[in-house]
Amino acid sequence: MAEVSRTRDATGPGGTHRSTADGQPATGGPGDSGEVRYLSPRVRLFWAAPGVIVTLAGLLIVILVVVAGDPPLLPVAAATVVVGGAGWLLALVVPRARYRRWTFRITEDHLELKRGLVVRRESSVPHFRVQHIDFHQGPLQRLAGVVSVQVSTASAASDAVLPGVEPTEAERVRGLVLARAEADDAV
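Structure (tokenized):
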């Protein structure tokens, strides 16, 4: 069985690199049973956007306060440090941590999702329950070059979303899951 490891190299689909325990490249495609997949590394740009916007808005408010009057230096410096620190946390640290904690894999029987920073969530969608798979791409996702993959089932509670996958990987996921869903229907 191939050992799977993640690298920062985004040349492969989803930014993954597959290798065996001795470091040799693993064989097979993304349909290998049990292969752990990561979202596209570019999803971090999409997730960082709200933090950047909040930081810029906060710094703009601090600048307006300074320009509008003659405030004491210490509160302005403290506000700048707080806003800058919060922005750094929201724009850099949280998206990187979220990315590392988001994995999925397609097995012979189901699609598994694992995610969450504080509260870890794991879900499994059996292939035979899949009704259709949609792609969504808003303006920020388009800018980052990623799409969301929505896997719909008969039960709204078991729907699954992959929030930031490269378009080629999204097509591969849709093809694999739907092919396995059709194979389950034939049995």
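Residues 73-101 form the longest helix (29 residues). The CA atoms of residues 3 and 23 lie 9 Å apart.
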